[in-house]
Amino acid sequence: MASNRKMLVLGGDGIGPEVVKEVLRVVDWMAKKRSVSFDLQEGLVGGAAYDKHGTPLTDETLADAVDSDAVLFGAVGGTQYDDLPFEVKPERGLLRLRKEMDLFANLRPAMVFDAMADASSLKRDLVSGLDIMILRELTGGVYFGQPRGIDDLPDGTKKGYDTQVYTTPEIERIGRVAFDLARKRDGRVTSVEKANVMMSGVLWREVMTNLHKAEGEGVVLDHMYADNCAMQLVRNPKQFDVIVTDNLFGDILSDCAAMLTGSLGMLPSASLGAVDEVTGKRHALYEPVHGSAPDIAGKGIANPIAEMLSFAMALRYSFDMGEEADMLEQAIQNVLKSGLRTADIMQDGMARVSTTVMTDSLLKELDK
Amino acid sequence: MASNRKMLVLGGDGIGPEVVKEVLRVVDWMAKKRSVSFDLQEGLVGGAAYDKHGTPLTDETLADAVDSDAVLFGAVGGTQYDDLPFEVKPERGLLRLRKEMDLFANLRPAMVFDAMADASSLKRDLVSGLDIMILRELTGGVYFGQPRGIDDLPDGTKKGYDTQVYTTPEIERIGRVAFDLARKRDGRVTSVEKANVMMSGVLWREVMTNLHKAEGEGVVLDHMYADNCAMQLVRNPKQFDVIVTDNLFGDILSDCAAMLTGSLGMLPSASLGAVDEVTGKRHALYEPVHGSAPDIAGKGIANPIAEMLSFAMALRYSFDMGEEADMLEQAIQNVLKSGLRTADIMQDGMARVSTTVMTDSLLKELDK
Ligand SMILES: CC(C)[C@H](C(=O)O)[C@@H](O)C(=O)O
Ligand SMILES: CC(C)[C@H](C(=O)O)[C@@H](O)C(=O)O
């Protein structure tokens, strides 16, 4: 069956390939049971690409990614790569994809599944029903700013440096995404920086404030310092709706938020580019929030749900298949309700299952 | 009574002056009951200094601070100063003190008081008995790195930028403090950076590793990425002993850790300079972790305990008065055990008291 749904599958390292494989079973199911087919391609990234090609991302794979409608990404990294030079570390593959595909908007929902409210380290009433969206700028800031390097100083010591930098257009485009997201949610955006210390933060706050005046109809905008935001996430996460912040703060705050849901093995993310004015398409990459988890790789016990939900985001944001996304998300809720758990989310009284058995049950749910 | 215990008292803004005032009652008590006197001086900082002098820190006050054995600091900031130009914002007063006094080592204990284990948003068993030390580098990194600024670009937009920079000696000196602290505690140091993304992080990890080989006897050193550290703090804070990290990560992670103790209004901090090889003295500033809390300022309900414990740290680190420090800390424990609580830490079944009544009881405890 012909299709223009081009999806590049990059399993990567550790449990990445294991959980991606499970999603491909759902893709198969969609083709067989709903006559929706995808044009799939597979590739290597991270340590796996390094092992084969000496680089964590080949130019060919990058070209395939740019050419696709969506990249389904697993995870990268592993202890065996810890001593590789900086420029060929597994992470560079992911960072290069983000940068070259211009995936500036990273959507990280932090939500608590009904079945999982007790799994949080926070008290139940603080997190049950939690549903916040962390929007992280993904292609700017200290991750890519120039100059950066390690210089030898005359006295024999060294200096390591990085540049944190944001321009007005970079801040505006992520701000617009934040406002758009908020309008479909609770209408509140908290913009997070360190404007009391950093000049990039001063500009960030100024641009967000102006953008809000010009284009923020229907949205309430607040500002918060990053250190306070970390506190507030721990104190009372439900106070937030959409949090928008820069690349580095977003890295830390979204991980903090993800962990406090207690549902880390179940959280997806989407990294989106700008919508092309001609084709109406946008570059996109979908990946679970959890990493490569080398300690449990190869054991068949990884939780495939975060990768499944990442695929659901792809259905929604890249393939205009909201109905199938809903269906998949509902099936996941049902499987959880039925008491099945992978090891990472195991609770008293539940049934512990392997990666594949989790997917088996999910497919059965979809069949219903 | 003559004394060379020179202490500069800078109450600052919001609840700062209120809690500092309570400590001065303990200082009085020490003079009367233990014949230990301090050579006290008071000054303005932050918004209070700006209101009077047009600057958040005058050169005279800075000179007094440099000349003192310890600065007892309250807090700075308030909404009425939000629109001041960056260079005269209240925070600049504090940042200038840190930089000019070269207070590179910021000790932020995150501990849970027995009486307070239920006040945490984390489940009780995850935090009860928690006692970790976050050591934050305080005079380097993106807080002070050059160049920094906001430039107008040719196309009419702007660029805001900051420089994150660390040198070998800067990393080594904070690493030494971490190892020293760990030796008096559980012997474990976790060094935190983003060596997978930042060049300053690559150097940080390299220098810590080398320093550990050369001078780390009796200490186990681990490395962790900052995003993972935020997660691990939420997941299981008791896994840590000493965390050492840079200025920006330290700002966020120490606030996160402070909040999860549930004892925010009770946490002190010490900011220390290098020990002078001739005099054996070091510059030092002591301040509570909580800020100026403008919303409760002037109401007489602020919790004075964090400032009291900051003074206890001053007794221990600057005045070699470990016995008095123990005494004060014990008195605080006893007052809490007796059921007194200020509003911020109020719990069912306890007695809610004002700032001054809390101190009254403390003085009575000291009298025993
Ligand atoms: C793997 C690493 C480079 C990456 C990052 O720091 O962005 C990861 O932590 C993430 O959040 O996706
Ligand atoms: C007030 C502010 C400049 C300061 C900082 O960012 O260092 C504060 O958050 C702190 O942690 O002491």
UniProtKB/TrEMBL annotation, chains A, B:
It is an enzyme of class 1 (oxidoreductase). It comes from Nisaea acidiphila. Binds 1 Mg(2+) or Mn(2+) ion per subunit. PROSITE patterns: IDH_IMDH. Pathway: Amino-acid biosynthesis; L-leucine biosynthesis; L-leucine from 3-methyl-2-oxobutanoate: step 3/4. This is 3-isopropylmalate dehydrogenase. One of its GO terms (biological process) is L-leucine biosynthetic process. The lineage of its organism: Bacteria, Pseudomonadati, Pseudomonadota, Alphaproteobacteria, Rhodospirillales. Residues 6-362 form the Isopropylmalate dehydrogenase-like domain. The keyword Nucleus does not apply. HAMAP family: LeuB_type1. NAD(+) binds at residues 78-91, 291-303.
